[in-house]
Write a structure and sequence with these properties.
Length: 282
Amino acid sequence: MAELAALQAAAQVEHTPCGADSMVWHLWGRGAPVVLLHGGSGSWTHWVRNIEALASSGRQVLVPDLPGFGESASPPDGHDADALPPWLEVGLGQLLGARPVDLVGFSFGGLVAGLLAARRQHPVQRLILVGAPALTNHPIGRIALRAWQGEPPGPARDAVHRHNLERLMLARPASVDALALRIHDANLQRDRMRQRRLQATDLLLRTLPGITCPVAGIWGAEDALYRGRLVVVERALRQVPVFESLTFILHAGHWVQYEEALAFDAALASALQPARLAGRQD
């Protein structure tokens, strides 16, 4: 818990418009900006184990709570990924002017990032997708999750969260530590975007050919969304005009940047370097 508290205390907090209310951003470091978008039922804390490495490498790290999640207001004009890019563009313009960004999107945030990059309203010089959905019109296999809302805070609710994290987010039971449970519980309680449906479509697959910036991908090799069919990911990413690389990280599930943080940070640092050759790394 000290890790999370120290990171939050070091952040610069900014507010940008979201309808009549605001979108909340956490910023660290100085240098070329990199924007991290969290997953569904998440917040900036999805990146708790990665922010320090990026900031220490000489980057300015901007991590919003997407509209409808965390501390940000709900979007006034929709309930899914397609309603979020305009508010991100407003925020980026207010915080950075016309400075280009490297954009990293995890899970639902990967879909949002793809839609944002395709709009080309704010300059995106590189897009990195992490465990993104919406790359196929074939539904994923059923993932048996348990309802947590009827459980009071305490061991019983933690047991439900542990079950769900093991099934969907993390490949190894040992990865479901106290910090993961705390982050997951806090984020679920602040999720006001539960009607999202686009992540179960092939919207991102159909969007990729219109993205003109270089694109790379980082996936957990045991990602529950693509278990047994990782080839779908590579086929999809090769639809972009400038495909740079795809890295699968061993022993990691969907929340790859948490479960294998050191390996993920190394892969992300490599993907952020310019002029990389297209290919695949395992």
